[in-house]
Amino acid sequence: MIDIVVAKNAGFCFGVKRAIDMLDDIVNDKKIKKPIYSIGAIIHNDIVIKKYSERGVIIVDEEKALSLKDSTVILRTHGVEKRIHEKLLENNNYIIDLTCPYVKKIHRLVSQYTDMQYKIIIIGDKNHVEVKGIVSYGKDNIAVVNSKEDIEKLKFDKNEKIVIMFQTTANIEKSKILVDILLNLFYNCKSVMTICAVTSDRQKEVDMLSKNAEAVIVVGSQNSSNTKKLYEISKKNCDDTYMIESKEDFDKLDLKNIKSLVICTGASTPKEIIEEIVLNARAKF
Ligand code: SF4
Q1: What global pTM score does this model have?
Q2: Most informative mutation of 75, 102, 226 for ligand 1 (most atoms within 8 A of CB)
């Protein structure tokens, strides 16, 4: 029989579980006006999103969100830009904020350091919705970097007060390298750790498990930043690493005669999907 190891940190993270529990209550609450609008995906998992769209949650983009009036609107776990939040309030919407408290903490830090006249450098993906939200809490004092090349393009003066912060799902090892470069470049520079502990624990665990693995399955959506990072870490250690979203994807994999399998997941993957994959793997091998 195949030996299957499921990562200890698999399944929903704290922030996603909190959001989904709250969303269940909202969907079931007859007193809350329906439909419920979500600005972008509630979490990065298409299977979960489909489930809620069948229960009346409508996903809208940022532009549509600006025109919502007197409606029920939820803010996704990764947060939204400040201008959108303000417009939703102005338009008398009933807002249910599912933003993860760790993301909200970064919003607060950015506002505070902006008030203290700091320049702020965020290490992360400038196109990711979480980072766009974080940046919106600063003014013209904030820049996003994700590589040495990005750092070379920074326009901040070497003597300015600089604080470095991180996208919650930033890659820890890569971030350390970029922080070292920045600390050497700016004379008055410090960093505030904002990578979520969930992210770092998962990255460390997948690094450890994948080193001796025959095959690794990373379960999560293609558009999930933390899932992609787990895949990259595992792939470096184990060539037979696969990123999948569902048990159907697992069934299509060409895994031949493996005796052991490691399963880990992004922060938005429900436990039920892991259980289905484990059952299929046991039936197959
Ligand atoms: S990974 Fe961390 S920051 Fe992101 S939703 Fe989960 S607990 Fe919050």
Answers
A1: 0.90
A2: 102
